[in-house]
Amino acid sequence: MQTAILKLRQFCAYQERSHQETRYKCLELGLRGEEVEQAITELIAENFLNEERFAKAYAGGKFRIKQWGRKRIKMELKQKQVSDYCIRKGLEEIDEEDYEAVLLKLTEKKYESLKGETEIKRKYKTMQYLLQRGFESELISDALEQIANKAG
Predict the structure, then answer these.
(1) Which residue ranges in the chain fall short of pLDDT 50?
(2) Domain span at residue 84?
(3) Residues 79, 35: one domain?
């Protein structure tokens, strides 16, 4: 049990982890049932594991590095079984002005890449691309209007 705890400390110290990821790691290390819960409790007590901190790091990172929208980040965090409270805290890490700037930049880049298409097709394909990245449809519409007005 102690060697497993040491390995789990290293696992959590390397980068922020969700409780679910850590549970899977416990199983990989051969811990079962009550041992898993004990290990998780110990890691939380020693501050190696903190779901809110994980959500903030995850949301901030996915937005800055992969330029995902809030809906995609929220969905991914839900898949990792992060609590709604921690998801909200994580999404608060994303600055509103940065969010709009990234959306506008991605909209313009995609829209410009579709120069050969008809206006309706350009808008549709740009909209689909941004929805896939997890941006909100009403924000995409606003961004598309700005870009189309600037271009046309």
Answers:
(1) none
(2) 51-91
(3) no
